[in-house]
Structure formats: C-alpha cells, structure tokens
Design goal:
10 helices, homodimer, alpha+beta, five-stranded mixed sheet
Chain lengths: 316, 316
C-alpha cells in the first residue's frame, strides 16, 4: 500500500459530508441556497504532470483544462477559478500568465483569486487550481451505473500518451498528438448535454482502463471493455498502428481528458444524436454488469489485463 | 520591484470580474443564485510559513485557520474546504491528518475534496487550502473605509511573532506565545458580528502596520496609528516589555490573524457591546483621514516609520 493510498484513506475518514462524495468522485457537490456548486482542486507537479520544457503558456492551459475536465464530467458550467502559484523564473511566469489569459478568455472564465508563493529555488514546482462550477441539471457521480448499462467514451483515446512519447523522443508522429498532451480540451459542452442522459460519468485522466475500473468499483459492478471499439485517432493509428499492443497502450496512457460514461441501452439514440450535434464522437466501448473487476476482450476473445492499467497517482 | 509583485500585477490585469475584487481583498465574493459565496485559497510553504519542526498537527490547524481567517474578515460562515496536499513522510502525514481532523471538528467544517500529490523528496513542501464561505450579511472589503473612520483591531498583536522568536531561540517567554504562532484562532464569530458595523475589514496576517497601510491605500486614505493603543497581551509584555521598540516589534511581526477594521465614530458603542458579548477585546488604535500613507504616533508625538512594516510576501 503506497503512502498516498494510506493518506487518502485517512482523509476519506474525515470527509463524511455527503457533498464530499467520499472523495472518490471527480468533484464535490455542495448545495448552497438553491444552487448546486461543483468544486474541484487539481495540481500539476513539474516533472510529473508536465514537463520542464513544456511551454509555460501550455502548462497554464493544461492546469485550467484538467480542472474544467472534472467539472465537465459532472455536467457543470464553470463560474470561476482560484490559482495557487509557485513563482519560477520571471520569463516562465510571464509565459504562464499569457497562457492563463488565453485559457480564461477561451473558457470565458473569471479568475477570482488565489495565492502566489515564492518556491525554494531549483525545486520542482506545484501549480494548482480550484475550479468552481454550477450544475445545470443532474450531477452524475461515478458510482451511479446500473447492471446492463453500456460504457461510452468521448473523442479519441491515447493521443496524449503518444504525444508525451514523442516529447520523450521514443516515438515519431504527428504534432497534433503533442498538442493533445499539452493542451487538452475539457468536454464542457458535452458534459452538460450528457449529464441528464447518463447513469455515471467521470473524466479519463489516469488511463481508460484504470478509470473504467474505478467507475465499476464505485458502482459495485464489473466492467467489460471491447478493445476493438476503443476510439483511436488517425494520428494515433499513423504513429502506432491498431494492433492489440497499440490499443492497450492507448487504453492505459492517461491524460486523455475525455468523458467516460455509463448509459442505458434505450438512450443509445439520443446519445448518437448528441454526438452529431456536438461534432464529437461518442463511442460505445463496453458494458457494466453484476460482479466486480475489469475484463477486456477483442474480436479474438478475452484479452488478459496488462500489468499496468494507468497512472496510480490518483489525480482528482 | 519583486518578481512576485510583477506576477501579481499581471494576474490582476486578468482578474477583471467584480467578484475578484481586483485580487486586492482577502477573498473573492461570488454571487451564485441568491447566495454570496466567499472564496479564498492560501498556501503554507515549509520554511516560510511554517517551521520544519512545527508539529504536523499544528501545521494542519494553521492551514485551516489562516484560510478561515480570510473568511472571518469578510464576515462569512465557512461551509467547506478543499485540500491541496504534497506528501511528506508517512509519520508526518499521519500527524497532519490527525490535526486536520481536529480542525475540521473544531470548526464543524466539511472536507469536500482536493488533490494529493507526491512531492520531490527532500524539497520544502507547499500545502494549500481552498475555503468556501457563505456571507451572512454584508461582505466588507478592505477598500470601503471613509475619511473620519476609526481603525480597530481585535485581540492582541505581536504574540505570534514573539512565539516564532521563542522557537528560533532568540527570545524567552510564555509557551502561550508559541501556541499563538502555531495555532492561531480565526475570528469567525467576531467577523460575522462585525460585518454589518464596519466600513472596511481585513485580517492581520503580514503585520499590523503593513496591513493597515494596505487598507488605507485600498480605501484611498491616509492612516494614523497610535502605538500606545496597540493591544499587547500579558505574555507579550512579560517577554518584551512595552517600550516603543517592543510596540513596533509587535506591530510589524505578522501572523496575528486578528481582525483589522474601520468603523464610524457613532458605532463605538455597539462595537464595545459586541466585544463584551464575545469576550474578545476590540481596541481603537487609530483613524483614517483624507490623504495617503501611514503615520505613527505615541504619547510623545510622531513616531518615525520603521524600515520594515511587515511581511512583503503578500499572503492572501
């Protein structure tokens, strides 16, 4: 058991308010007056969640995007953010503010406050954001799936992981993959539109397999994923192909910031219509059934689980 | 101009929403539905805001307390917190959770969520909290004082600074002073009761003089403080005496987490009644007048400003 797991278990024992959702969800849901607030706080650590040589503009974008992705997964509309910033060197900080400005503009998002501290020089920095959202309708949790529900995912999976490999020098591929790693797009519009249609929803941050397993666990169900159905982009296919290894790699890479959701079979049609309206692929990749654990299959039959399902660091 | 000042000025240019209060206030005030939310995010950096040898239980308490102090200064009732935590060693983390549990219990405060990250080993850690409050009545800013208003402060000033000096080995004194440094008490009840009576309010975190100067600057007024009126505790007097040097030291020490507020002369009586009801001294220490800048006096006449007015790091 890792130190992090122990610590989070101890925190969980303190987080007894229903609004905390047991700290297992992407965000807290707090009723205030007649409003349901959706609250999330995610940090990026240099060298872990971003690379020291990532442009600071992109790091700012990513910090905003990963937090808004949590709100998207709860169907919430962002209404403001607070920044927790550790100063770096002045040029980097200036680039960060420029990127932050672009992200705030891009999402029409008010910067409300925060705290800036001087970090110890040379040490890797931690940048954090608290995002506040307002629920437009129901606020799906990751624990709400029912036996028989189908599992869906938005967009394409694996691009960001391939982009990271390109930056690490271990892969050649389209620059678009790097952009998907550095500047993910939170699926805000899709999240709000899907919230009334789904039984459970979360974002894919640590890896499709590990995150799907978490949804199953939280819902008290087993999950089966059909690897052949995992949506891959043209750029991903061009860089890595589409054999089983490439598909497993995509499904365990993380940093996708796509929506993973469960829905009833009867809602296939409205979901397909929604995908059309949004211009965003929504793909059925599996189902949830009575039982426990994660299983994989492809056209050839059952596929053994890879040793590593994604990032264990428990983002969110 | 420090890197921090430049960075915060650049952020300020982005924080154009009225809710952000220009990033000069202790907290943001966001209207959602019929509710005014008060939001703050403050970090503690090891070696800067707390000492490596402070008990982790007390660091947890302080992290909660300094954030709630910002809410207190806005007259808000805390409704939840999100924790941004960097893992240390398991024993320390366990102590932190224990202290956090005590603080959450003590303030009847729900832990709603947050993010836990593994820090680079050996590097000083940053711990942060986002506190969410609900305004019970008016939400005083630090910019609302009017010429002729009187300046008040709660509790006693300088204890925490003396406590820090004791821990640093440069002073002998009562253990109570160390407790005031390690486990400050946010003035929540007083803040809520004062909010309708004051024209401006903030907490004293960086030092009475620097913070009073900030209130004057934000309000477009000059501030005069009578050093003889600055309230000192018995423990402080016992350790440092009450001569001008001791008073200047108290007024520039910081970490007090007392309330500093401006009020009209006509409200002296209800404020005195409130002090009685709360069992908390509320002391008139000066006034705000047309003009600019900070001036000091004592019974002997004008007192030259010390070179250092408090901490410049701009907490909050």
């Amino acid at each position: 058991v890792s130190a992090e797991t122990t610590f989070i278990a101890a925190l969980r024992a303190l987080a007894t308010a229903p609004a905390a959702r047991g700290l297992i969800d992407d965000a807290a849901v707090l009723e205030v007056g007649g409003t349901r607030l959706v609250l999330t706080h995610d940090a990026l650590v240099e060298g872990i969640h971003y690379r020291s040589d990532d442009p600071p503009e992109d790091v700012a974008w990513k910090l905003v995007a990963v937090n808004l992705s949590d709100l998207a997964a709860k169907g919430a509309r962002p209404i403001g953010v607070l920044l927790g910033y550790t100063l770096g060197n002045p040029d980097w900080d200036e680039g960060f503010v420029r990127g932050l400005g672009r992200a705030l503009d891009g999402f029409a998002l008010p910067l409300l406050g925060g705290d800036t501290v001087a970090g110890p020089s040379g040490a890797p920095r931690t940048l954090s954001l608290t995002a506040i959202g307002e629920a437009a309708g129901p606020v799906p949790s990751r624990a709400g799936a029912a036996a028989g529900d189908e599992l869906w995912v938005s967009g394409a999976i694996g691009d960001a992981g391939a982009g990271l490999a390109i930056l690490q020098g271990s892969l050649h591929g389209d620059e678009m993959l790097v952009r998907r790693y550095r500047t993910p797009r939170p699926r805000l519009e899709a999240g709000q539109a899907l919230a009334p249609l789904v039984s459970a929803m979360m974002d894919v941050s640590d890896g499709l397999l590990i995150d799907a397993g978490r949804m199953g666990h939280a819902s008290g169900l087993g999950v089966t994923i059909d690897l052949d159905e995992v949506p891959l982009s043209e750029a991903y296919l061009g860089a890595l192909g589409e054999d089983r290894a490439a598909r497993l790699r995509a499904a365990t890479a993380g940093d996708d910031y796509e929506l993973l959701f469960a829905a009833r079979t009867k809602d296939r049609h409205p979901i397909a219509k929604l995908a059309e309206r949004l211009g965003l692929p929504l793909t059925r990749i599996g189902q949830l059934e009575a039982g426990a654990g994660l299983a994989l299959r492809d056209r050839a039959g059952p596929v053994p689980l890879p040793e590593r399902l994604g990032w264990e660091h428990g983002r969110g």
